[in-house]
Design a protein that fits this description.
alpha/beta; 8-stranded mixed beta sheet; 14 helices; 8 strands
Length: 302
């Protein structure tokens, strides 16, 4: 299957590589030339403009956006609409607010185009482990894209699914990220408590390794926590400053609007705000986990 990919950053480039290694064709466009060598080395075709990318795709065309949410997505859609034909498909694989997705689906439908939202999890590890994908859109369009999803996922019938109509994929991914906030916060606080109990001289990396096997709190996030602690258990080079990229705020707001109590996710979000005004090992470990699973930038300690 042939796919156009706009945005060849960390995740977009890795997704393109996974597709190419499994027999798909990828035509790529990126605003900077940096990732083009990687795409070319995997057998992909780089293009200099979005117009060129569209011209190299067969109908129905599938154009996947892996670019920052907000204005970049809106601008890309506005650029694509006059270039695409009826029945062509635009896919947004970023962390877009689901209500924006619903509006955009209506917008492109007015031009005879289809819209699919794919909440994507997997970070920098997805190229080897596969991506978890929460898909929203019309059933027949999603079914037609099954070869793409089956290739990107950990298995043909593992780690991905059709959530429902347009917006549902991004809605589920939003809640997924809110839950992620809570889990990460619990790990970070627990390890901080153990570090503070100096009388025992606890080895935090050893504890993480013990918990990884057989424990009810084992998880991939714990595996990545163990990696971070193995690199530097004191996290001396990491500032206790933890960014939030929006999904936690949206989840909390949605919970409020739906009258659903969500104290853990809410507290985890507030803790990230708090990280920007105080020195804390908890926040250092949160920042380290984000770097481990997503390659997110960390702020270096002064």
């Amino acid at each position: 299957m042939k796919l156009g990919m706009i945005g060849l950053g960390k995740m977009g480039g890795n997704m393109a590589a996974r597709l190419l290694r499994n027999g798909h064709e990828v035509i790529g466009y990126n605003r900077s030339d940096g990732p083009y060598e990687e795409l070319r080395s995997e057998g992909g075709v780089p293009t200099e403009t979005i117009e060129e990318l569209v011209s190299l795709l067969d109908g129905p065309r599938y154009v996947w956006l892996m670019i920052p949410a907000g204005k970049p997505v809106e601008d890309a859609i506005d650029k694509l609409i006059p270039l695409l034909d009826e029945g062509d498909v635009i896919i947004d694989g970023g962390n877009t607010f689901y209500q924006d997705t619903m509006r955009r689906a209506e917008k492109v439908a007015a031009h005879g185009l289809k819209y699919v939202d794919v909440g994507t999890s997997g970070g920098i590890w997805g190229i080897t482990e596969g991506y978890s994908m929460m898909v929203g859109g019309e059933t027949d369009v999603v079914d037609n894209m099954r070869p793409i999803f089956e290739t990107l996922a950990p298995g043909a019938d593992l780690g991905w699914g059709h959530m429902g109509p347009s917006g549902s994929g991004h809605f589920v991914k939003m809640v997924h990220n809110g839950i992620e906030y809570g889990i990460m916060q619990a790990y970070a606080e627990g390890f901080h408590i153990m570090r503070a109990k100096e009388v025992f001289g606890l080895d935090l990396h050893q504890i993480a390794e013990v918990w990884r096997f057989g424990s009810v709190v084992r998880s991939w996030l714990l595996d990545l926590t163990a990696n971070a602690l193995n690199e530097d258990v004191d996290l001396n080079d990491i500032a206790p400053w933890v960014k939030d990229s929006g999904e936690g705020r949206w989840t909390v707001k949605e919970a409020i609007d739906l009258d659903v109590p969500a104290p853990v996710i809410t507290d985890a979000l507030i803790a990230r705000f708090d990280s920007r005004v105080e020195d804390s090992y908890t926040h250092k470990l949160l920042a380290a986990m984000r770097n481990q699973f997503g390659g997110h930038a960390i702020k270096k300690a002064n």
